[in-house]
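User: Batch of two.

Assistant: Item 1 of 2:
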Amino acid sequence: MTSQPSAAELAKLEEELDPEMQFRKVPHGTALIIGGLLLALSAFHYYTAGFGLLRETTHRGIHLAFVLGLIFLVFSARKSQSAIVHPSTLLRPGGVPLYDWVFAVAVAVSSLYVPWIFEDMVFRVGNPSTLDVAMGTITIVLMIEATRRAIGWGLPLIALFAMTYAIFGTWFPGIFLHPGASWSNLVNHLYLTSQGVYGVALGVVATYVFHFVLFGVLATRIGLGRLFLGVAAAVAGRFAGGPAKVSIFGSALFGMISGSSVANTVTVGSLTIPMMIRLGYRRHFAAAVESTAATGGQITPPIMGAAAFLMVEFLNLPYASIVIAAIIPAFMHFYGVLMQVHFEARKNGMKGMTDADAPKLSEVFARDWPTIAPLFALIMVLFTGYTPYLAAFWGITGCMLVGLAQHRAASALVFALAIGIAAPTEFLRVPGVNFAFTAAAFLIMAHGVLMKSAEGRKRVDDMIDAFILGAKYAIGVGAAAATVGIIVGVVTLTGVGFKISWIVTSLADQWARGVSGLIPFFPFDLKSATLFFTLLLTGLVCILLGCGVPTTANYIIMVTVAAPALGMLGVNPLVAHFFVFYYGVLADITPPVAIAAYAGASMAGADPFKTGNTAFRLALGKVLVPFVFVFSPSMLIMAPGFTWTELVGSTASCIASITLLSAAFAGWFLAPLAMWERLLIALAALPMILATPTSVLIGLALASPVLLRQVVARKSTVEPA
């Protein structure tokens, strides 16, 4: 099997391919200052996760001050300037423009202003002073600019439009008319209350997302990603189209520790994309397979994307419940991609990996089993009822112990710790336990430095670099979360969310009445048809919004405006949020801003737009999954009214519909499919989303002519013995 690139090589790839990682090149001295600030940000979150969070507003304010201030230091105003190292001058201290230093300090001060005046907030909300409005204006304006630099124009433009709507409400027609707000009132709502910038989105990033991102980086650094890739190659590599299936299986496993689509694409794709190309896959298809599978990391337990942690706050549910609910939808994502890849491999006669390329499972585990200990510890803490950030703290500490010490001895310690946590002795509540194990990790680090061992220093450097890299991953999503707070704040201030919900449900009801009157054997009753069209509209908006907005922002916006519409039709909140979440994942492979697909295309030397379109097509194999769990909520396991009968029935129905739809897109089932066959089995997949015996029978009846002809066609193409 091809050797895995080093951590430094992977980090370089990500920086080249991910817009959120394209940092400004600066002289060595400035790089040390910026690195120190990034390390301080990670250290702050690591400490508070294990030893107690600060007061809510203070914690969010410190996080925001670091994030926005760092963005102005590490992202150039223009991407074209990022790769140029400028010398230090009077107007460019440390190679960074003077105005960026001013912006960094100004936004840090204005971000910390709200925590500073917290004791007087009760007198200020609704009656802001001139200084309050000035500080709020600085924060909002510079935050939008910071978000533009970090993730592009999409989200800032939506935020600007939202503020325009809030101020000029009297100019809008019909149902969107509202009295409008003054700039002072808007700043008051967005800056001084918990409904805007300092709202739930920022809080979740500051208390959950950052810690799990840091754990994922550390886990990858100690070799857990290599273990997952080895397992994937050993299990799936020898089947037809082997490297493509390794890509899917590897992305699923790597997705357990990384909620970043680009990181997943780069890490797994660095091995699988070249192997797919050597096997005969077209370059754009190889890149599309990897990027499509990689996006599933955001919905793969136990460590999902930021949106999963937002669900914890929005729904007031334990994170463990979200993890359990995500298991089957995550499986369906990878199954959908797998089916299309399998049919593509059969259609083109692709073979699997050779014995020389595919490792043995026993050898993989013998080499890397110790690296799974921190993940085991994290899961044990998570499912023992403690907070997600405390689970992440123990996972990070476990990574430090395993990465700094001898792997096998440290892993035995971490496994013992995890078992102790799971025991009914309230292990983590014993005074000093957090301190003792954290101290052990830092003593090992100090030993590596003081003993002047080359290996020890290398391990210490790896851990420090991982802490810095974790902060780099987090600043982009931190800025996006704060800017999304503007959109959420405008929705709560103007009530536009309920207006949009009313429009969507009214339009869906009209469509339902029209279609049910035209089609004699329409499988939906009026209520189900209205729900179906509401879901269809919501899914389409999620996909369109994903063209220019990251997954997390997509989820928050759609939950704010679409979840009420689904709630009006009786959809459980957990189900509604998962529907939006599942479709929002498509954002990273939705052209024209498909960053995961473009990352894969760059690695494969393929056309980016063609790769994005192919990745989007591959993802459509599982497009019916959210519809199935809306009509059969038991598929999420944690939804109210769960029954095993409904779970088994809906899962089987979903698998059948994905298989038929994937075959229709690929043009192959058991043999080549004619166009009429592709259309018929795609149509047959639709009734199955209801997951009732009648709907499944209708689907099978529609598909039966194609299935019978495929069996005959396959027999006729089999060569005689």
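Item 2 of 2:
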Amino acid sequence: MSLNSARVESLRDIIDRPTRVISYPKKADGTPVYTSEFFGENVFHLQQIAKALPKPAFASFLKQMRGRQALDRATADAIAHAVRIWAMDRGATHFTHWFQPQTGTTAEKHDAFLTLKSTFTAAGEEVTAIDAFSGSQLLQAEPDASSFPSGGMRTTFEARGYTVWDTTSPMFIQEGPHGTSVLYIPSVFISYNGDALDEKTVLLRSTEQISKSCVELLSLIESVPVGAQPRTSHVFTTLGTEQEYFLIDRSLYALRPDLKTTGRTLIGNLPPKHQQMDDHYFGRVPSKVMATMSEAELELFRLGVPVKTRHNEVAPQQFELAPIFEEASLAVDHNLLTMDVLSKVAHKNKLKVLYHEKPFKGVNGSGKHCNWSMSTDRGENLLDPTVKPETNYRFLLILVSVLHAVQQHGALLRTSISSSSNEHRLGACEAPPSILSIFLGEHLNEVLDSIEESRPIKNFSMPEIQTIKLGGTALDVKVASLPSISRDLTDRNRTSPFAFTGNKFEFRAVGSKQSPSFPVTILNAAVASAIQDVTSALREQMGSKPFPSDADKLAVIKKFIVSTKNIRFEGDGYSDAWIEEAGKRGLPNIRTCPEAFEQLLNPAHATMLTKLGIFSQSELTSRYFIMNERYAKDLLVEANTMRTLLAQQILPAAFEYRGSLAQSVQYLNGIEGEAQSPELEALKVLTPAVKELQSAIVSLDGAIAKMHTIHDDAVAEAKAASDYILPAMQAARAAADRLEVMTADRYYPIPRYSELLWF
């Protein structure tokens, strides 16, 4: 079967294929089980640990979770025994330490509960099969550290590394094949020397530092006497990750080597209709997609993932899933679990999830909007402005700390979201720009401006501002059945990479494919450092007084309002005018990944990260090399994939079509003489396009060859990939896309955008 025939058969299969049907849980009488009743049923919650342990042992475990002491062997053994029984009663045959190496995904190695026990008697050795799981097996495992990215911290002959149970994230089971399941133990991954080899260790460090910084500031402004117990003993960073993704048919996906290998289409033209009609966003969800969403949600509910929202996104075949806010580390685990479950369920439904930030040229790409805030152990949101933010000095001190963090370390935040895939999305008029700025909205800007200018605030609490009256219009056409609705004090700005959205900040620039761990780690670190600066300024302002007065607080708030004014921007972040304005303000505009990666070793940022203890200098250096190496490898894989696709499929198809035209011309000339046939005109247009593509492939080969001349220098490879590979691929794509338009459909070997984006 030719590739074109396979394409046609795949399209027929899409039409004829029945939708997969599953059943949500029901009670014995056939009535539905409420979601809340089976939510988290596949999670080994803290309540189960409490039941399994004596009260003193459970109290000890809680202290360990809060970082006050190590987990003793007896407690670990008791938990291990309890979780094994719980998991095996639910079909578990294996357990795994589930961790986040610096590969952009998760990793796991499964071990069976089954073991052999030897008993020696007079008759000889008797071997008995038993199920066992010890505390030491629960606490740690040993994957090969040299086989994961380490940036030089581990060599081939230094293989030892450890996964260690993260007690702050609950264990859970996932269904396996044939009715079995696997117990998952969320873990960190460290080297033999204790260096972080993963994304989670540094995230946990950053959450501890932001808690310490916040508690110190809150103790000061809440007037807690020295030696007294502070009102706030811990602060949590909270996170809600909006996950965007594409869903396409798996049979068509299998016919696109570029999608299979790189996650994006390296060639292809937009169909006549794509997103220009604005009819896909929030439109009716296709039945096959709804079936996939619903089944994935069922699995996620059982896993305790609080998914809340689902809808169509802007581009065709693009969708979004968003959860309820959780503590940041758990939210990251749940986001990675969501991506995994969604992929598995889509596979069962004969679909393929694309998490790449830009799988299709010309339509909107995908992001992972990280909604970030801070909450005290009393449940108070530190970014809640309350009714009168102008007199809420705690909120204002935290707010200016965030402003100060982005002003000081915006370039580092740009680094945290830099990758070869997200580079296609940033700066386009569909996604946040690569210049980091903060949107606060009209109300908060007025609050800050009034403090800076020492004047009364404009009245933002008038009834006409708070409500929109839908019962009548300026034309006095009344619709009495429609009630008045409340209106937010501030509009939203989707062009801002870092926007305040009521009681949180939305970090919109994070890529859809990447783990939120690293961006949130950097954000936590920058804010923790900024809060320390604000606290120091407050101590200096209050002098020898035991507690700061309102005037002291206001003076410090004003100081940071003035110093951070350049980072605030309320306008169109997509406009050329903003790029020019940002340059005048001195804001960095980091356009390429290699340039962004350099910020990790910039002393202004590196000193902050190492001083806080979130990274050691060796960990920073290793991550710098890992990011450069990953970038270079990504582009080299894309270039080789493109070269193979063009040379083995696109050019041969063009040759075949060209040959067919030539035969037609020759045949018609034999009948009509030297008449200028339409076929000859088509041939004259097609031939230069074929030659152009051939020339582009030669140039692409040259760029790949330049990459192969560089050895053992990840930084040089990344720069060469940016300088040579990217331009060569862009030129080759332009030639291939022109040729696609000219090639008759019966000869074109791979699914076109018109087939991939509509099913």
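The mean pLDDT is 90.
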